[in-house]
Amino acid sequence: MNYRAFITEQVAALRRQVGNNIAINALSGGVDSSVVTVLAHRALGPQLKTIFVDNALMRDGEPQRVVKAFRSMGIPVELIDARQTFLKALQGITDPEAKRQAITDTFYRDVFAQAVQRTRATFLLHGTILTDIEETVAGIKRQHNILAQIGIDPQQAYGYQVLEPLATLRKDGVRRVARLLGLPKSITARIPFPGPALAARIVGEVTEAKLATVRAATALVENELRNTDAFQYLAVLLNDYATGIRNGKREFGQIVVVRCIDSVDARKATVRELPWATLRRLSRRITALPGVNRCLYDLTPKPPATVEYI
Ligand code: XMP
Q: Which member of 2, 90, 194, 274 has the greatest number of CB atoms within 10 A?
């Protein structure tokens, strides 16, 4: 594919499709939504309203970091604080699919619908890529960002029309386009991060306390493994507890799993054989987090495991 031509065509198509109307898009800081934001900003300028929704499930400092990166490229991004709305919607939910559904519904029906009304946008731009469509249609995963493909009419369900300018590209193509658009390496080379964010890494109910733990563990893992060239690395908080000893006292503590995988496109994955010293350091740092007294390294490839835990 000629990616320069792709950019020119998509910018022209967005102008044609949106016309004099307002388009809105949600930026997550991932490469897909970042590319959509830059393409659409080129095509639509002030007719584009880009929002970043803080859903309480992001990594440490992520909302502020992403908004700042785009503002420094001259692209205004509105930061919407929806933390309490999401936390409330997730209260008491333990089933993985129900959690994903609650996040989707809260995002589209509550937070996004309000932003659409306020900005009077009639078009929603979405960073759906070809793999999302294929995996959803094949029933491998209900990707949070697929609507039309699974029979939900967004016009009827949520009141707007969806445009998906990246629907013909796979991840490597999106990265090529991102580089051509001049996006920084922190975005083009970013490791994958799931749509349901840290909620995909908490087994059981999502609470503020558990989010704080998995967020801190995630920061430790990302810091420690940043210089590996692994495809993806993450921390997961289990719903089980184990006995431990801290300061001479027995305690029933939380368990964090570290996962580090090699993969081409996340359809299959093998486990990275990390040096023992790295694992030991990770274990020591993670078990220094309040309430956590065990750290496990996940040795399971995909399949049979998936990358995420929900
Ligand atoms: P799984 O857990 O299905 O993950 O083996 C495969 C890859 O996809 C990412 N992932 C998601 N990405 N929305 C996304 O945008 C999601 O709902 C989602 N679930 C998983 C995961 O991080 C891995 O790279």
A: 90
In 3D, which of 40, 41, 67 has the Cα closest to residue 54? 67
The whole-number pLDDT of residue 144 equals 52
| Spatial CA neighbour of 48 closest among 67, 20, 72 | 20
Q: Which atom of ligand 1 is nearest to the CA of 231?
A: 24
Q: Determine the length of the chain.
A: 310
What is the CATH number for 134? 3.40.50.620
194 alpha carbon – ligand 1 mean position (Å)? 5
Residue 46 shares a structural domain with residue 175: yes
CA–CA separation, 60 vs 52, rounded Å? 15
> Does the pLDDT value for residue 151 go beyond 80?
no
What predicted TM-score, i.e. pTM, was given to this entire model?
A: 0.90
Please choose from 141, 144, 171 the residue to mutate so as to test ligand 1's pocket, defined by most ligand atoms within 8 A of CB: 141
131 shares its domain with 8:
yes
Q: Output the residue whose Cα is nearest ligand 1's atom 22.
A: 194
Q: Which residue reads 């008491």 in tokens? A: 92
